[in-house]
Amino acid sequence: MKLVLLWTDVLVWSLVIVLLLWSWVISRSPQIKQLWRTIFKSSVAMASSVVLLFYLFFTLLDSIHLRLALPHEAQQSQSVAYEVEMVSLLDLIFAHNIQHTERTYSAPFATVEYTSSIMVNKEGKTVQVNLPLKYVSSNDDFMDKSLVALIMGILLSSLLILLHIWWREKRRFTSACKEIWQGKSMLPWRTAYVTFMLLVITFTWLYILSYSYHVLGTDKVGGDVLYQSFKSIRTGVLIGILTTLIMLPVAIILGVSAGLFGGWIDDVIQYLYTTLSSIPGVLLIAAGVLSMQVMMDNHPTWFETTLERSDLRLLFLIIILGITSWTGLCRLLRAETLKISQMDFVTAAKAFGVSKLTIIRRHIVPNLMHIILISVVLDFSGLVLAEAVLSYVGVGVDPTMHSWGNMINQARLEMAREPMVWWSLFSAFVFMFILVLAANLFSDRIQKVLDPRNNT
Amino acid sequence: MLAYVIKRILYAIPILIGVNLITFMLFFMVNSPDDMARAQLGAKQVTPALIESWKEERGYDKPLFINTKEEGLSKVTDTLFVQESLKLFSFDFGFSDSNRDIGADIKVRMIPSLSIALPTFIIALITNISLALLLVLFRGSLLDTSMMIVAVIIMSISGLFYIIAGQVLFSKMWHWVPISGYESGWDGMKFIVLPVFIGVFAGIGSGVRWYRSIFLEQINQDYVRTARAKGLSELKVLFGHVLRNGMLPILTGVVVIIPSLFMGSLIMESFFGIPGLGSYTIDAINSQDFAIVKAMVFLGSVLYIVGLILTDISYTLFDPRVKL
């Protein structure tokens, strides 16, 4: 096995490291720690962050790419040869689904194909039959398997939950368990654990049944929809978080310097963001993506495999989205910086001869944190939804890449069929809805706690 | 007043030049005229002479920013960038790749776009504000909390879902309205109803939440307390004071998008087969027609800037405290 790093993988993992560092830094400040406790005191916030972490987990699982070693017989020399295709850890988990590719559409849990084909039967007559699916056996073990999945899910989630409690409260393990059971713990851990358990049970149920059925059906070329939906998680989450990662430094640096330095710097930065924001968003993105496509067609040497190509395209899309979306935050930060820089403590710091850089670092940026955080979580859900729309317009991620937008886009063409092919659409919308709903609920809570206007 | 408007219009010029520069860079620096010529002329045997003649035909043979062959001022003016920008500023959008007059196309397609966008905008505004007022009237009650949950759910569902679900329910299963198409005049009503309804419904979640927060901010103000202390009924407080004072922040958000209604909605129009500017843009994007996309970018920015100016003017009309 050989580890391969795609560009977006690098960004995702560096983001994780930055987040861990950041949480370590803030865990040293008692005020900020208190603030986060207030945020998580709401059980809605707790439940939605568990859901968000669940999605993040699959993103990270799908962000470790490997090239498997070829089997030994195929090798002549001593050195190990690797397969050309890259697979992620998620692909390995769903390997059976990738192999079990059917011929065409089939409904969820179906045992026969969706479309009927013309066959010649034993008596020599031509009949229309729905051919049985290749990888679904029609034995009735649905209930048994569901029961097994339920028990496995409960066992697995309970084990993980107990481990987590033990890790948090090593000394007073039993009393902590009791507190959480009765819902008396300081943070609503009970809600979090129930959400977690539900998610794990749902996942094990889907996963175990995916060995004997196509749980969410198959698409036009027989690909498993469940696998596609899980693969799409990475695309959606990546667009949501990496875009903000790219736009944040630009917005912060430009916003703070416009507000603090004033004069011609302010004029230039204001001109810059008014110009950018006056171009309709979708059109600017479309123009950017079109130019990017032409550029990539002119430089075929930049990527070796189709996976690398679609990854590069995703990266460009994220950068373009970042360029088009920093203006709003920048405007907010400029106004807030203007306000803060007039305040007494900044004047006092200036009088003491504190350097401008230190003033920015110690006095201004910490006071902007709430605006930054609110806009990051608010943008996230918007970007996840935007991905679907952009794919529809034709300026989204690469058509070969798994994404909810592409799933919707392909399934949309089949709307005229009778009865409808609804499962691809349904799965994409449900997976997207859960993620966006969780993000929206979480951002509501953050806004409620952090926005000073709400403290009345 | 007039002086202010003129000043604002003058201020818009450098912004539009900036917009032009951005689109120009996107289209001509990444994708040079040579590339465009090759793409247009197709896979035929492309000779350098053929490319040159194609470029000359379209006026693409000039240098991008600085023409070293010329003297004096025309060193800058006789370039591709200045020529292209001047054409756009006089609203001469030129011809698309399929040799159609873009300006004429835009004029024709504006009406269908407006016939969807304008009713959606007005109905959405009225519904959202009335719903928000209702929630503010019953703030803190079960109705308020449950409606807020519904609002979060509505805004968490992808807009594409509403369109697809609406088409399947109302057109495919119940046959109330045709699934897509467009006709001018009153006969076209049946085509307009569904997109307008879906547009209004999809926006209800975020709209109601936004207006509700505006009204709630007003309701904690001193003048509201005074009004109540005077003995005004809650309804009179709401309509006479909260709504009127809430109109100001609503104006900022609303007036700026009115001119952009001309651009239509990309998604709606292409799903419902409406021959407006939105579907025009999508078709251009799909066929990689740079000339049309460029024209639409410019038009969109102009309309947005017009919206900004209108916002300022409407402020002076509605808020006596603001003087220009």
How would you characterize the overall build of this protein?
The complex is a heterodimer of chains A (456) and B (324). The longest helix of chain A is centred in the last third of the chain and has 38 residues, at 356-393. The model of chain A has no long low-confidence stretch (mean pLDDT 85). Chain A has helices at residues 7-26, 30-40, 43-61, 89-93, 95-99, 142-168, 173-181, 189-209, 225-261, 263-278, 281-298, 306-341, 344-351, 356-393, 404-412, 423-450, and strands spanning 2-4, 65-67, 87-88, 117-120, 126-129. Chain A is 67% helix and 4% strand. In chain A, the strands form two sheets. Chain A has a three-stranded antiparallel sheet. In chain A, strands 4-5 form a two-stranded antiparallel sheet. Chain A has a domain at 232-454: MetI-like (MetI-like fold, Orthogonal Bundle). In chain A, a hairpin with a 5-residue loop joins strand 4 (117-120) and strand 5 (126-129). By secondary structure, chain A is mainly alpha-helical. Chain A contains 16 helices and five strands. Chain B is mainly alpha-helical. Chain B is built from 14 helices and no strands. Chain B has helices spanning 2-29, 33-41, 48-58, 74-77, 80-89, 102-137, 142-156, 159-173, 189-219, 222-229, 234-255, 266-271, 277-286, 290-318. In chain B, helix 7 (142-156) packs across helix 9 and helix 13 packs antiparallel against helix 14 (290-318). The N and C termini of chain B lie close together (6 Å). Chains A and B meet through helix 10, helix 11, helix 14 and helix 16 of A and helix 1, helix 7, helix 8, helix 13 and helix 14 of B.
